[in-house]
Design goal:
The chain is mainly alpha-helical. Helix content is 75%, strand content 0%. It has 1 helix and no strands. It is rod-shaped. It starts with a helix and ends in a 15-residue tail after the last helix.
């Protein structure tokens, strides 16, 4: 195989690898955005729960409110 053919073959492999990595990064970006929205929603929900005083935290020997 001539050196130019080797370079072209390696370049083709590198281009394919970069395309695959780009797709992976784009997919991970979408997943991170979704998870960030969910965490934000859960934190807001917990903050409102704490503001209402119904956090549901049991300390020591305290019985939960449903007893």
């Amino acid at each position: 195989m001539e050196p130019l053919e080797q370079i072209e073959e390696r370049l083709a492999h590198l281009i394919r690898t970069v395309d695959e990595l780009s797709d992976t990064v784009a997919r991970q970006d979408q997943e991170i955005a979704l998870l960030t929205r969910r965490v934000t929603m859960l934190m807001e929900r917990e903050a409102s729960r704490e503001a209402e005083g119904s956090g549901g935290v049991v300390l020591g020997d305290e019985k939960p409110p449903h007893y």
